Amino acid sequence: MRILTGLCLLLLACAASARTAQEYLPPDSNLDPGIPAPESVLGWDVGDWHVSHDKLVQYMQALATASPRISVKVIGYTHEQRPLLQLAITSEANQQKLESLRLTHLGAAHLDAAQRDATLLDDGGPLVVWLGYSIHGDEPSGSNSSMLVAYYLAASRSAWVEELLAGSVVLIDPAINPDGLNRFASWANSNAGKEPVSDPVTRQHMQPWPKGRTNHYWFDLNRDWLPLVQPESRARIVEYHRWLPHVLTDHHEQGQYPGFFFQPGVPSRQNPLTPPENLELTRSLAVFHSEALDAAGQPHFTEEVFDDFYYGKGSTFPDINGSIGILFEQRAIRGQEILTSNGTETFRMAVANQLRVSLSTLKGAWALRGRLFDYQTGFARTMQERAGNKSFRAWVVGDDADPARARAFLDVLDLHHIQYQPLGETFRAGDEEFTPGHAWVIPARQRQAGLLEAIMEQRTEFRDETFYDVSAWTLPLAYNLPFTTLSRTPATQETSPVSSGIPLDRDAPAWAVPWNQLDAPALLQKLLDAGVKVRTSIKPFSAQTGNNLQAFSAGSLVIQAGIQENNSTSDILDTLDEAAHSGLDIFALKSTVTSVGPDLGSGHFPIIKPVKPLIIGGRETSSYGAGEAWYLLDQRLGLAAPIVELDRLEEIDFSGYTHLLLPDGDFAAISEIQKENITRWIKGGGVLIAINRAAGWAQELCFQSEETPCEPVEETRGKT
Ligand SMILES: [Zn+2]
């Protein structure tokens, strides 16, 4: 029976019919019967159904309970409160001293000699390999295979697995995007038949908007490794830096090519900051993947199509941190099976391929461990030397009079372990003045020199001008913060500057909030929700605050004490104090008569009306765009944000809304009658926000009177 299974694994046809975990795994696995196989917990064989995230968690927890080789940790939670798991798999003996092994691996200086002797490898600790699955939730073969990988490492008593685990820590992130995985699993399973349908047109293969690729707010987590906006990314980055793996895998699916892809991608599209040795090591690992897939008769390809340029992707981020990141792209099945140019391919085949390349990664990394150790050790030194050869010594970044925005930027640096210090002297660069209390110095030469350069550089010339997508990401520009390079390291301070906001005078007649601040809209929403009357300045003004004359731009918020009939001044001040405490600059004004510009009682300070937005979504629109708007309004502003699909727009009466938000999309389906309704609504004071292709559509709206009808406008859709 075992011989038959072994032969079977060499043949494509048999791989398609693999069912139990044992049948997926190498014939010499010698599985410990005391460790639960996936089917014993799931109630069905891996690949028969798409695993839901709760079932995945249930199995991994059962495995960790049964196996002394596995420890499992909840590293965070998604928006939908699903746990983010990390499994650490190593030998039972190593499991007892996991933290010590980790510190040795990182080269922690505080280990004493006794601890060092007790660790695994004299030459710097264990091999650390991180296997990360299905960051795109509708590319689920990775997450489904993770159960087999974990089971194999927990249960196999083969000499190879025992040797590997004696010298390695294998970290498994079984579902990088649990909310997306669950959304897709629910769709695929609820459309599954007893007889699988391979016809690509069937409903099961055509998941509805917004699809399972993205997280709860429809963010692409595989662009978020660098900006770290979403909770999944923020939880994961802590563990990444805690472990600094030698190799990190990133398991995806693609729908365009008949074969399985693995990196290297197109060599000319590798980021030039990544050392050439990275490509060589990636190529050496690729030999192992190719052997594994050839042994199973599975078509594959490499050095084509995908690039390795944007460090916000899971397979590229490791490349600027001294790790080797590997992208895997299995042919997408999107259901139980699908007809491709190869014939009918099943979900089980996809799962089997992800298992194969997971094991070939472990095999390759173990065989190449000497080179991987040397590469990682040398990486930080190489990056620091390069930083030392630059014409500048440091960057300085100012706060743009918005401490909260600067704090958000510095928070990303903290998560990436990048060092900085408060500026200790004033200096000017061009039109920009950087002052102590409002600026930070980031030394170029530091341990994270490579990642820092990637975050700060403004690259405008490229060896190859073809990109998978993202080509620029200078982080201070994303936060709209002033920054420049410095040819000398300026004086710095030890302690961080605090908000320059003056403590609130509770007896003031009015308070003002500059609108350029990141958190000002959230404060406004909170005040409006409480029924507070808030005015905005339509002209700039200067007013006395304490002993200072403070300039305020147009758009500043003004809260006047005397007109708040529905709220006690005390309640309002509690809200303002809370916002000021969290970093918002709020100023108490001495008088409603200003020193420069209009006075507060003039007609230049209209009362702000509450905003009632409506976001248009649906399959004709970009879920990224709609999700970004939803996230911004809901999470950042605390504003309930209804979303209506385009095909329900006919039902909508716009009179109940103040703002209509159209993300990128094709809006040709909006009827002439509804266009007239929207036009009338805009004339009545409604605000239309149209982005990308939506702006082209909005250009066609007719604002002329009936006596002078609109001329047909030139087609612009798709060109903006
Ligand atoms: Zn993907």
For the report, how would you describe the main beta sheet?
Answer: 8 strands, mixed
**Roughly what percent helix?**
25-40%
Report the mean per-residue pLDDT as an integer.
92
List each distinct ligand once: zinc ion
Count of separate DSSP helical elements: 23
The outline comes out as globular
Structural class: alpha/beta
> CA-to-CA gap between the ends?
63 Å
Count of strand segments:
26
Biggest sheet strand order reads: 1-2-4-3-5-8-6-7
> What is the CA-atom radius of gyration, in angstroms?
29 Å
Strand portion: 15-25%
Low-confidence stretches: 1-16, 108-120, 715-720
Protein topology:
Blueprint: H1 2-9, H2 12-16, H3 21-24, H4 38-42, H5 53-66, E1 70-77, E2 83-89, H6 92-95, H7 98-106, H8 113-118, E3 127-133, H9 141-155, H10 159-167, E4 168-173, H11 178-190, H12 231-243, E5 247-254, E6 260-262, H13 276-295, E7 300-301, E8 324-331, E9 337-340, E10 343-346, H14 347-367, H15 369-388, E11 394-398, H16 403-415, E12 421-422, E13 427-429, E14 432-434, E15 439-443, H17 449-456, H18 475-478, E16 483-486, E17 510-513, H19 520-529, E18 535-536, E19 541-545, E20 548-552, E21 557-560, H20 569-581, E22 587-589, E23 613-617, H21 623-636, E24 643-645, E25 659-662, H22 672-683, E26 687-690, H23 693-698
Parallel strand pairs: 3-4, 3-5, 5-8, 6-7, 23-24, 23-25, 25-26
Antiparallel strand pairs: 1-2, 2-4, 6-8, 9-10, 11-15, 11-16, 12-15, 13-14, 17-21, 17-22, 18-21, 19-20
Helix pairs in contact: 5-9, 9-14, 13-14
The protein binds zinc ion.
Zinc ion binds next to loops.
